[in-house]
Amino acid sequence: MAVDFGQMSVVCFESRRAAEMLSLVDRAGGRGVSAPTLREAPLDDHREVLAFTGQLLEGEVDLVLLLTGVGTRMLAKVAETRYQPETFRSALASVTTVARGPKPVAALGELGLRPTFTVPSPNTWTDLLQLLDDQAPVSGKRVAVQEYGVRNAELLEALTDRGAQVMAVPIYRWQLPRDLGPVHRAIDSVIGGEVDFALVTSATQVYHLFQVAEEKGQAEELREAMKSVCIGAVGPVAARAVVEHGLNVDYEPDMPRMAHLVREMARLGPDLLAKKRVARSAGVDTNRWRRIDMVWPQPAAGGDPVESVFLKACRREPVPYTPVWLMRQAGRYQRAYREMRAKLTMLELCRNPEMAAEVTLMAVDRLGVDAAIIFQDILLPVEALGLKLDFVRGDGPVIDPPVRDRADLGRLRAGDASELQYIFEAVRLTRRALRPDIALIGFVGGPFTVASYIIEGGKSRNYAATKSMMYRDPGTWAGLMERLVPLLADCLAGQVDAGADAVQVFDSWAGVLCPDDYRRFVLPHVRQLVESVGGRVPVINFATGNPALLPLLKEGGGEVIGLDFRCDLAEAWATLGHDVAVMGNLDPVVLYASPTEIRSHVQAILDKAAGRPGHIFNLGHGILPDMDPVRVAELVDAVHELSARVEQPQP
Question: Hey, where are the domains in the chain?
């Protein structure tokens, strides 16, 4: 997606870095409007700072948390009004210091000091707490906190709860700017419908904005007008302030930095703004809405719906660019997802159709991909067989009791897909709220992969129990397939009935098999599963780990064959034949590399596809939990940009 505001109006409430922010907006193609809502006001009464300095010199402080560069400089300046600079600096150097990011690090450097610890990016106060928990526990410690702006009561409480003796050291506070003219004009412009985007970089900006609006008697008008403005908040604290004032945050970057906020709003904002205004015109309260509340206009009678580029590629039709989506495109690498998972277990999230739909839609909004894949897990159907499923931290999925012999098999229930209605409801909610030209993919696990979890009781390195059953007791293996495959087929059917535009069979671990074993023990069941769809929607047949299985995957069926990253795309497609579409196949680890390296690998894969209709770009497996969301978005953009340069050949 282009990083371009399209010359739309962008109001910014940043103060100290207002010029820098306007420059970022201008370079991203926006018409920036600066309306500073606060100023730093040093305290006239420095008793608390001097009291802290005295205790520091007396050895009565164990740890100092420096939260801002400006505050660190002010702290030193005030301390040096009473004590010699060398004395203060020596005392500060003698205790543990923690700098919340690069700005206090730079301020300490000006004093000739280095912090003991630096809070890693994105430098939030929750990251600070995590660092303390991991490297500098505060229980029983005397901790001084250099405050700024407004008191962070949650941080102070969290430190106290950890057993610290906390000393707050205020050095400056936020106040309204002396010249309120820009804020007044910004409020009038929003109410007048002249503003497209509003970017906030602190909670205080929001408090002060509405304080001024209240004084003007226009607070409610401002809230109403904001229903048509795309709002970006730099991080969770600013976002919470937006919500507290009755508004909705349309975008919050994974990296809480001003530059990231501007870039991502320029990249995604135009689409988010268009969606928000469509929703408002349909009667949705966009100040209090979720993604699943979206309402799209229905096509006029007799009109053709906008068709998905993804579905065209599945049918090997010419497309203007290569469509892209990513396995595990919703997951732990995203901060918003981690925040959801902090409140819900994996099973609770999957069993909540509204939350599962919200996660599915969130990935599309944040990445700009051409297809959504419903959020669920391949092992959910095993519960319909009477097995207990759990997800254990550090161990992954656990199935109890495992099925190891014919007696265990006899204890299984006949699988009833009606127990999976929460999956189908999530599909229905997602399809209703998803942009009409974005495809929705449903899925199930492949027969071997799901069976391996049932037999092993969880994940495995060598699948010894599974292969042993196939070799020693093929009758029990066949009996397990007789119970499992119809259930998986019904799960696919339920998702298609609910609105899935395509489905994928994830036989993730089938690559551990040799071709002869796959042909004998797995292929008939994959074919049965794929044929159960009956051509209602395209089927993607995907397995990893053994390129020698590719001809057998084609025998198993499906309009699209998913390619693992271990094979060469051009050679694999030639092996399969160009009468099927292919999906893939970037090594996920490439996403740890630089943007230049990512683009190089994307171009290499596009070159192997040679512009032939029927290529869907994806990873050769899923996104890893610790990957940088910015790199993932850059991958999507690179695919769209680089593939659009290729003239599409005629079929």
Answer: 9-37+179-289, 41-175, 339-579
φ, ψ of residue 234 to 5 degrees: the values are -70, -30
CATH number of 9-37+179-289: 3.40.50.10090
Task: Report the relative pairing of strands 96-99 and 439-445 from DSSP bridges.
Answer: unpaired
CB atoms within 10 A of CB 132: 24
β partners of residue 197: 10, 230
Output the CATH code of domain 339-579.
3.20.20.210
Task: Give the span between the Cα atoms of 118 and 99, in whole angstroms.
Answer: 5
Phi and psi angles of residue 543, each rounded to the nearest 5 degrees, phi first = -145, 160
Identify the bridge partners of residue 10 per DSSP, sorted by sequence position.
Answer: 32, 197
- Tell me which residues are annotated as active site: 328, 332, 341, 377, 453
* pTM tops 0.85, yes or no: yes
**What is the C-alpha separation between 185 and 592, in angstroms, rounded?**
44
Cα–Cα nearest to 577, from 320, 312, 316, 326: 316
Identify whether 401 is preceded by a cis peptide bond (ω within 30 of 0): yes
Run of H or E residues at 488: helix 474-498
Query: What digits encode the pLDDT tens for the residues 638-650?
Result: 999 999 954 544 4
Considering only CA atoms, which of 174, 156, 155, 168 is closest in space to residue 51? 168
Average pLDDT, rounded, for the chain: 93
